[in-house]
Amino acid sequence: MDVDLQLFKNILREARHNTDLLDSYSPNQFKSKELLINHINKLDILNKNSEVIIFGSWYGSILVPAFEYVKRITLVDCDENILNISKNRLFNHKKNIDYVVDDVFAWASDSSRIKKTDLIINTSCEHMTSMKELKLNTNSYFAFQSNDMFDIPTHINCVKDIEEFENQMPINSKIIKRDSISDNRGTRFTLIGKYEKSNL
Question: Does the structure show a pLDDT above 50 at 178?
Fold first, then answer.
């Protein structure tokens, strides 16, 4: 396994005064994202010509290195400061990452990039309106996560179980994999599936 020494140095440098970045590398974050990454890898849907979009990307701390071999990764987040840190101080040595400062729903509903992407990831579904409300014209695969951590103030759309989460999936989608994992704050739910463009 290759070690990205430049990324490691960037993390150490930035984390000296940014505890929020450290939180993005917490054991809980690794645990849930590793589960999602493993399921995606088993599907064998990505290669060096693929494109990946990450909704509510935060810093992209764990997911960007996991999929850095693809042609392009697009990080979409409404926090300009966080994306600036990611672009200029964390992944400044990477050339295949695009940064979009926007509301996920506003950007995705009007983006031509959605139509040709291979995978849409959202590990922050609890922070935004139901994915059912985002009607996308695409054949992309998706990997979404939410949780039952209702007591966290920034969580506006938690779910009590995976069945409730599945009810928030787009009507033009087919679920391929369901999974859940517990951490010290609650349970995270993972749904992996595929949009079916012809059903729109």
Answer: yes
Question: Model pTM?
Answer: 0.94
Quick one: tokens of 148?
Answer: 């039952």
Question: Using 50, 70 and 90 to split pLDDT, how confident is the model at 3?
Answer: low
How far is 55 from 135, CA to CA, in rounded Å? 14
Tell me the residue length of the chain: 200
Q: What is the pLDDT of residues 14-24, one digit of tens each?
A: 999 899 999 99
Classify residue 56 by its DSSP letter.
Answer: T
Q: 5-199: CATH homologous superfamily?
A: Vaccinia Virus protein VP39 (3.40.50.150)
Which residues make Cβ contacts (< 8 Å) with residue 148, sequence separation at least 6? Answer: 158, 159, 160, 161, 186, 187, 189
What gap in Å lies between CA 83 and CA 88, rounded to an integer?
8
Whether the per-residue pLDDT at 200 is higher than 50: the answer is: no
pLDDT at 109: 86
Determine contact, residues 93/6, Cβ cutoff 8 Å. yes
CA–CA separation, 49 and 39 (whole Å): 20
Q: What residues pair up with 16 in beta bridges, in sequence order?
A: none
Q: Which long-range contacts (CB under 8 A, 24 or more apart) does 24-27 make?
A: 24/58, 24/59, 24/61, 24/62, 25/61, 25/62, 27/183
pLDDT surpasses 60 at 95: yes
